[in-house]
Amino acid sequence: MASRMDSGLEGSMQSLPTKEETHDDGESVRVYLRVRPATERELAIASPQVIFVDGPSVVVKSDPPRSFTFDGVLGETSTQQEVFESVGRAVGSSCLAGYNGSVYVYGQTGAGKTHTMCGPINSVQSMQFDERRGILCRMLDFIFAEVARRGADGSSSEHRCRCSFLEIYKEQITDLLEPQNANLQVREDLTRGVYVERLSEVAVSSLAEAFQVPSRNR
Ligand SMILES: Nc1ncnc2c1ncn2[C@@H]1O[C@H](COP(=O)(O)OP(=O)(O)OP(=O)(O)O)[C@@H](O)[C@H]1O
Fold it and tell me: By alpha-carbon position, which residue is closest to atom 25 of ligand 1?
């Protein structure tokens, strides 16, 4: 695992969203595959591993070819917005309904985890909307826009949002907002559930504040 988007959002809602709004199909874990376009260097060595995408399945090169099925497959032409629509929006909606939600990316080095989660670094350096932004920014944008919308139409009362940023690498957890905070431990508690001990949590109330968190803590 390289990165994750967690809901540090607590909310009390006067009316909870419907199952359709939270995309609740009763499944608590969903797995999507995103296919990265092969680079020129990779194509010079071999043809692409993925032979074709068929709905939620991919057929990969092997003898004989093998098929794998996921909750969804985002092909190599998929946009950052399509990835958000398939993966991020449902998690954001259920966080607003008071459920915990996480988005994890998993894959070997160079697979596209950072691209999918964050997008290029210069796509998040200004507040101006940038198509290249990844799930993390899009979920924050979605959550704060929804909180504002619900506040304006009187359908929600109070929300608190906290940001954390951690890395798990070789079984070691590091707090990316306080990098000297290394070797953190995962604990479980009856009221808090599973949590990372000593992980910093920064309260934020807008997308602009959330964007400031990494630099504010540097
Ligand atoms: N869907 C995509 N479309 C176009 N380019 C992509 C896509 N996914 C990844 N890339 C490009 O592939 C390269 C590797 O991607 P990225 O850095 O996100 O991999 P990573 O899984 O985070 O790697 P590492 O584990 O080594 O940090 C980057 O240049 C990135 O811009």
Answer: 109
CATH number at residue 95: 3.40.850.10
Ligand 1 atom with the smallest distance to the CA of 35 is: 1
Tens digits of per-residue pLDDT, 106-163?
999 999 999 999 998 778 777 778 899 999 999 999 999 998 888 888 876 678 889 8
The answer to whether 11 and 122 are in contact (CB under 8 A) is: no
Render the burial of 166-186: b for 16+ CB within 10 Å, e for the rest: bebeeeebbbebeeebeebee
Number of domains comprising the chain: 1
DSSP 215: H
**pLDDT (tens digit per residue) in 2-51:** 345 554 444 333 344 455 555 556 778 999 999 999 999 999 998 888 88
Sort 113 into a burial class: Cβ within 10 Å, 0-12 / 13-18 / 19+.
buried
The answer to whether position 115 is within a domain reads yes
Does residue 61 belong to any structural domain of this protein?
A: yes
Q: Ligand 1: distance of its center to the CA of 129 in Å?
A: 21
Show the domain range for 75.
Answer: 13-152
Q: Does residue 160 sit within a domain?
A: no
